[in-house]
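TICKET #2291
ISSUE: user wants both folds in one file
ATTACHMENT 1:
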Amino acid sequence: MLKTRTSRIALTALLMLPTLALMGCAAPAAAAPEPTLVSAPPSAATPTATPTATPKNEAADPVWPNERCQDEQLAAELVERPDLSVANREGFVIVLTNVSEQSCSYYGWPGVLLLSADGTLLTSRDDKMIGPAEPEPGALAPGESAQVEALLTEVGTYDCTPTTATTIRVLVTSDGAGPGIDAPADLQVCGDARSDFSGGPSIPAS
């Protein structure tokens, strides 16, 4: 009788082994540990670009559209301009025309001299600038003109012996190195170079 019961218990255990094995297979897998996030060090191969300030050129040279005009390329003409006159000062313009076959550029204040019939210097442009303080460079194609506005103090303003300036000479070549551009004139000035004569920069002719 005891042998029979033992056999039954052993048989029952054997029958349960597959079930336990299946239960072991179906048991949930242990959860994988969550990855730890680590900040990557900055890459030396891809540095952050730092904007570089562009230096400001406070005294930039003008951009010349063409080669600078030379005295030999231009012709001058003195034109009365009463509309430019102010108290005790006579207004006129000097028109500069490109008579060459090549375009050229102008910029700034040309030199201007007033001469007597025998070539004596009577007066020259003073430091009292008129017109725009910061002129723009310009270009003259063949046949085109620029102008220079000017003011001459009337000779009656001074206690002096008047004389006549018969030639106006304009110096356009850089540093006054050219021969100048002469035009006929009929201007009354003091004979002792006392007359105030002011001029502006070269600007497009109006």
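ATTACHMENT 2:
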Amino acid sequence: MKYTAKCVRSGDWWAITVPEIKGVFSQARRLNQVEAMAREAIALLLDVDPQSFDVDVRPDLPQEVTRARKARSALRKAEETAEEATVTAARALLEKGYTVRDAGALLGISPQRVSQLAPKKARADHAGETNEKAGTEGGSGFKRKSAA
């Protein structure tokens, strides 16, 4: 069974109620103590083992906290979107022949980060294509003279 421990700040204490069970009230000094206090009160009232059920702590959140949590959640989503766009852009730039340094400068990240985002195989495959088009081996652009 799962019970909800609703808690509201009351002076220096958290006032705890459990809506699923009439008559369960408790208090805790700190929020991290609410679950233990609610669990103890529920177990005493129902005469069961305190570990035989789950407790979901639901504090009454001030508006400022709700706003901050929403903003932090939006930030995490924006960071994920930015990371996906950066990976896609880094790979696209390297596939088009941009250097790792140029790709980094364009994306506002270090060349090392570009190398982390774009797999080496894709860069190596592209470098091989470029060398074949130039008609060279090893990518230097120079042909060695054979010793005769």
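RESOLUTION: both attachments delivered.
EXTRA DETAIL ON ATTACHMENT 2: The chain has five helices and four strands.
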